[in-house]
Design brief:
- This protein is mainly α.
- It has 2 domains: 17-95, Multidrug-efflux Transporter Regulator, Chain: A, Domain 2; 124-246, Multidrug-efflux Transporter Regulator, Chain: A, Domain 2, CATH 1.10.1660.
- The protein is 52% helix and 2% strand.
- It has helices spanning 22-29, 38-46, 64-79, 84-95, 124-128, 137-144, 148-156, 170-183, 193-219, 229-250, and strands spanning 53-54, 60-61.
- A hairpin with a 5-residue loop joins strand 1 (53-54) and strand 2 (60-61).
Length: 251
C-alpha cells in the first residue's frame, strides 16, 4: 500500500540511527577491545551497567549511546583497573551531568563542569565602560519604540535618569529598550520598580564592601590599583541570573 503524502517523512529530515544488534556492537568494539564477547556484554547488563533495548522477539538492540557507554566501561576496566562498583559510581555521575575528566587529570573520576563564561552576561569591562552616546528624550523614545506616557512613567519610577545636561546614555537606552519589550507583554513601568530597588540595593552592598577589599589588598602588599567594583557587580548579576534559572527549574 502506498504511503499517503501527508504521512511520508520529510525529505530533509535526518534519519534516526538504526539500533545495533549485539553482533554489530562486537564488530565495532573488537578492534579496540579484542577480548570483548557476547557473554561479557550480557554480564555487564546483568550487573546493571547496561540496559539495551529489546525487540518484540527478545533480541537485544543497542543505541549509539549504549555503545559509547560500553566503550567507557571497557576503557575503565582495561586502562584504570576500576572495579564494577567504581564504574557504576562513575556512570551515575555522568548521568547526573558531571563530565569525564580530561586526559592526564590527577583524578580520572567524572568531575563537576568547570565554570564557563556566560556570553549573555556583561563583563567587568562592560560595566566599567561608559559609552559616548548622549541622546535627547525624543531620540531615546524613538530608538526604544516608547510612547511619551511610557517614557514619562519610566522617569517617574526612577528607571531612567538623564545626566546633568539632560541627555541619556547607553545604559538608559538599554533600560528603555528592555522596558519597551516588556510592555508588549503587558508589563508596565510601575511593575518594574522592584528591578530599580534591587539594582540600587546591589550597588549599595558593593559600595559597602569595596573599601574593605581595597584595604586588604593594600595590607597584603598588592600593587594593583584596579577598582574591584565592576567585578563584584558581575558576580552579583551572575548570582541573580542563577537564582532565576534555579527558580524556573524548580517550577
Amino acid at each position: 500500500m502506498p504511503v499517503s503524502p501527508s504521512r511520508s517523512p520529510r525529505a530533509d529530515a535526518p534519519a534516526a540511527p538504526r539500533p545495533l544488534t549485539i553482533g554489530a556492537v562486537l564488530a565495532a568494539l573488537a578492534p579496540d577491545f579484542p577480548d570483548i564477547s557476547i557473554s561479557k556484554i550480557r554480564f555487564l547488563e546483568a550487573e546493571g551497567l547496561l540496559a539495551p533495548g529489546r525487540t518484540e522477539s527478545g533480541y537485544r538492540t543497542f543505541s549509539s549511546e549504549d555503545v559509547e557507554r560500553l566503550r567507557y566501561i571497557l576503557t575503565a576496566q582495561r586502562d584504570r583497573f576500576w572495579p564494577l562498583k567504581v564504574i557504576r559510581e562513575a556512570l551515575d555521575k555522568l548521568e547526573r551531568g558531571l563530565e569525564p575528566a580530561p586526559n592526564g587529570a590527577v583524578s580520572a573520576r567524572p568531575q563537576v563542569p568547570a565554570r564557563a563564561a556566560d556570553p549573555h552576561l556583561p563583563t567587568a569591562a562592560d560595566l566599567a565602560r561608559h559609552g559616548r552616546l548622549r541622546l535627547t528624550d525624543v531620540e531615546l523614545r524613538e530608538a526604544a519604540g516608547l510612547d511619551k506616557p511610557t517614557f514619562d512613567a519610566l522617569l517617574t519610577y526612577g528607571l531612567l535618569h538623564p545626566d546633568s545636561s539632560g541627555h541619556f546614555g547607553d545604559a538608559s537606552l538599554a533600560v528603555a529598550r528592555s522596558a519597551g519589550a516588556l510592555a508588549a507583554y503587558g508589563i508596565e513601568p510601575r511593575h518594574l520598580r522592584p528591578f530599580r530597588t534591587a539594582a540600587d540595593r546591589e550597588i549599595g552592598l558593593v559600595q559597602q564592601v569595596v573599601p574593605p577589599v581595597r584595604g586588604r589588598n593594600r595590607g597584603a602588599g598588592s600593587t594593583t590599583r584596579q577598582d574591584p567594583t565592576a567585578q563584584i557587580l558581575v558576580e552579583c548579576i551572575a548570582l541573580h541570573t542563577a537564582l532565576v534559572k534555579a527558580g524556573l527549574a524548580a517550577d
